[in-house]
């Protein structure tokens, strides 16, 4: 089980907190307004920390130094981005994600290496996809026989700069499209994996664990 820190106790934050708590993870929720914690069910076992989510003292109180992931889902774009950068750059949290309300800022945030989720109906599910270890491959579609699945790939930073064809060859998958700066693009033979890209690939269902293992580590030199 892992420790998660969530900034923002609104609808999305509460949904994340309850889901992670149900899964047996330890959770700390940060919010400036102590009254926001009333949204949490009475059986919630996590920590409730009142304070500013990008304040280092507040983050330490929430257990950021032991956190597997940090999710900033408050109502303020700037606060979410600032808190996420502090979590990643100061406390070196391996998995971070920021919820944003202005899709026009997505390109800037992605270039900073900060995964973002737009404020849409399924944003809680999208956040979970980026912070849960068991969600390293997320199925969005299965063909009729059930043997093939279309899902997101989670790659080690060492794959940055690798051509998509090289990734396909190494993992034995077929990359269908790439989400880059919030927009879907069709890959070309010379397209390379860039910071912030989300790769969507067709793969054999029975190989998802193997694919996850291959892509979770830096590639061998010949695959680059």
From TrEMBL:
All copies of domain RCK C-terminal, residue ranges: 138-217
Residue intervals of the RCK N-terminal domain: 1-119
InterPro entries xref list: NAD(P)-bd_dom_sf, RCK_C, RCK_C_sf, RCK_N, Trk_Ktr_HKT_K-transport
PROSITE patterns: RCK_C, RCK_N
Protein name as catalogued: TrkA family potassium uptake protein
Stored Gene3D superfamilies: NAD(P)-binding Rossmann-like Domain, Regulator of K+ conductance, C-terminal domain
Range of residues in the leader sequence: none
Pfam families: TrkA_N
